[in-house]
Design goal:
By secondary structure, the protein is an alpha/beta fold. It folds into three domains: 209 residues, 3-Layer(bba) Sandwich (FAD/NAD(P)-binding domain), CATH 3.50.50; 119 residues, 3-Layer(bba) Sandwich (FAD/NAD(P)-binding domain), CATH 3.50.50.60; 116 residues, FAD/NAD-linked reductase, C-terminal dimerisation domain (Enolase-like, domain 1, 2-Layer Sandwich). The protein contains twelve helices and 21 strands. The strands form five sheets. Strands 1, 2, 3, 4, 5, 6 and 16 form a seven-stranded mixed sheet that branches. Strand 17 and strand 18 form a beta hairpin. It starts with a strand and ends in a 14-residue tail after the last helix. The C terminus is likely disordered. It binds flavin-adenine dinucleotide and nicotinamide-adenine-dinucleotide. Flavin-adenine dinucleotide binds next to helix 1, strand 2, helix 2, helix 3 and helix 8. This is Dihydrolipoyl dehydrogenase. GO terms for molecular function: dihydrolipoyl dehydrogenase (NADH) activity; flavin adenine dinucleotide binding; NAD(P)H dehydrogenase (quinone) activity. Belongs to the class-I pyridine nucleotide-disulfide oxidoreductase family. Keywords: FAD, Flavoprotein, NAD, Nucleotide-binding, Oxidoreductase.
Length: 477
């Protein structure tokens, strides 16, 4: 058994872990990066990148399927499933290759392969070969798909996102359990590529929207495009010749059954903590056994253990994993001089069509007495209509007390771009009148956002709490 002594031990060579080690290096600390799985990160191997590659193919198919709407007739087109998956895999491998090369360029003595677990607050066992004694530890172990109990009978056969990106060809059909971001992104893309997809969810949730008007719009729009069995749980699941039979009872109490070639779980992800023996780490844990950390420092209690990325449970998306890695890595290196960082405005985007975005806090977490709401429908918005993408609803929330834009829930075309503008405006603390002074070209999707901002300005005026002074319209203005 070897023993290694370092200032900072980082568990997990994903996005958060790689950023943590950069900060440890910058701070002049000695460090070691421990990884139990393949290098390459979840984002590049089985997450952001391959899912967007699949969506890009689906968009191409959708554009061809709808070309006739523009007077362009495309005859006898088809989807070559093998070619689709070949591109997904080869481009994915290219992205993964860059990350693997960069990770393998880290000097070998700073990399350990094997599963890490705590044997004490400052002591880790890696595999059966190395003991690491560290002044501080960064836990950056990511998350993994969860398979719900109703799939227990076929648990070993249930696919998760990782498996889809290994396919050599597209299947005929698949049942997807879960209508969150992963289910909708992958399921809608496969539907557009001609795979018969049906979604199952015992709950009524679609994505992460919380504003009832946006939720209703999303249900209406996705309800037309996708085969959704919401609030309908599977009553039976079994392996049969040619696939898996799912039995379910619909909202009207009627029983159904269908055989699918595959079954996939997209019912949420769980932080990777089981292997860590966290009870030996001496850190505060919640009722699920997950580390409790301060989102501004990522410190667990007052210990020298920090968490970063999906495992922290704060914001399980890529740019936040990078930020958390940096915060945790810097604080671990300079412990006990732990610095609090102001987090960026929260921004979540789902690459469905229409796209979904949540900027700032979700509507449900805002105090209804403190906000005014402005909205725009994209069902007839000029540029959206030009592009044949006229569908959606955007709602903006402004604070009555200071006229600032504070949050938005957005369902519509190209909101991946417009949501960035709003996130940047919110982070800069811009007021609604200040936003109305910004240039907007014609004809663009941003004109829809300007309409929503104008509506919000009107609502704030009606609320009577934003006087002319607050709106930048003081005497002489
Ligand atoms: C299908 C899908 C699509 C996504 N799309 C997007 C997107 O479009 N945009 C976006 O912002 N986010 C997206 N995400 C989320 C994003 O991928 C994650 O938030 C991000 O990759 C998390 O990074 P991480 O560093 O926390 O974890 P990871 O990259 O998973 O790294 C954790 C590492 O820790 C290792 N590990 C675990 N336990 C141990 C142990 N005990 N010892 C040693 N090593 C260990 C693991 O092997 C792993 O390599 C998507 C996720 C999925 C699944
Ligand atoms: N574009 C992006 O940024 C992107 C894309 C994919 C994933 N992600 C990240 O990955 C995280 C995980 O995504 P996800 O879609 O797995 O989780 P999620 O939490 O978004 O969705 C889980 C879904 O499963 C449903 N569900 C719960 N129990 C179920 C059951 N027993 N049977 C069937 N359905 C059930 C929920 O109602 C919900 O619809 C996201 O929150 C996001 O942070 C981000």
């Amino acid at each position: 058994m070897k023993t290694k002594r370092v200032d900072v031990a980082i568990i997990g060579a994903g996005t958060a872990g790689l950023n943590a080690r950069r900060e440890a290096e910058k701070a002049g600390a000695s460090w070691v990066l421990i990884e139990s799985g393949p290098y390459g990160t979840t984002c590049a191997r089985v997450g952001c990148m391959p899912s967007k590659l699949l969506i890009a193919a689906a968009e191409a198919a959708h554009n061809v399927a709808h070309a006739r709407e523009f007077g362009v007739n495309v005859e006898n087109w088809n989807v070559d499933g093998r070619a689709v998956m070949e591109r997904v895999r080869s481009e994915r491998d290219r992205f993964v290759g860059f990350v693997v090369d960069s990770t393998e360029s880290i000097p070998e003595e700073k990399r350990l392969r094997g599963e890490a677990r705590f044997v004490g607050p400052k002591s880790l066992q890696v595999g059966d070969h190395t003991r690491v004694e560290a002044k501080s530890v960064v836990i950056a172990t990511g998350s993994r798909p969860w398979i719900p109990p109703q799939l227990d009978a076929i648990r070993d056969d249930v696919l998760v996102n990782d498996d889809v990106f290994e396919w050599e060809d597209l299947p005929e059909s698949m049942a997807i359990f879960g209508t969150g971001i992963i289910g909708l992104e992958i399921g809608q893309a496969l539907t557009r590529l001609g795979v018969q997809i049906e979604f199952f969810n015992p709950f009524d949730e679609l994505g992460r929207f919380s504003d009832p008007k946006i939720v209703a719009k999303a249900h209406k729009v996705f309800g037309k495009q996708l085969t959704l069995h919401l609030k309908s749980d599977a009553t039976g699941v079994e392996k049969v010749d040619g696939g898996y039979r799912i039995q379910w009872t619909d909202l009207n109490g009627e029983d159904h059954e269908r055989v699918f070639q595959h079954v996939m779980s997209a019912a949420g992800r769980r932080p990777n903590v089981e292997a860590l023996d966290l009870e030996k780490a001496g850190i505060p844990l919640d009722h699920r056994g997950l580390p409790i950390s301060d989102p501004r420092t990522l410190q667990c209690g007052d210990t020298s253990i920090f968490v970063a990325g999906d495992v922290s449970g704060h914001r399980p998306i890529l740019h936040e994993a990078s930020d958390e890695g940096r915060i945790a890595g810097a604080n671990a290196a300079q412990f006990p001089d732990v610095q609090a960082t102001v987090r960026k405005t929260s921004l979540e985007i789902a690459f469905t069509e229409p796209q979904m975005a949540i900027v700032g806090e979700r509507y449900i977490d805002l105090d209804p007495d403190e906000i005014a709401i402005g909205e725009v429908s994209y069902d007839n918005q000029g540029r959206a209509r030009v592009m044949g993408a006229n569908c959606g609803l955007v709602r903006l929330y402004g604070r009555k007390s200071n006229c600032r834009l504070i949050a938005a829930e957005m369902f519509g075309p190209r909101v991946e771009h417009t949501s960035h503008l709003l996130a940047w405006a919110i982070q800069e603390g811009l007021t609604v009148p200040e936003l109305l002074e910004k240039p907007v070209y014609h004809p663009v999707f941003e004109e829809g956002i300007r309409t929503a901002i104008r509506n919000l300005a009107k609502e704030l005026r009606v609320s009577g709490q934003c006087g002319p002074q607050d709106r930048g319209e003081g005497p002489g203005a």
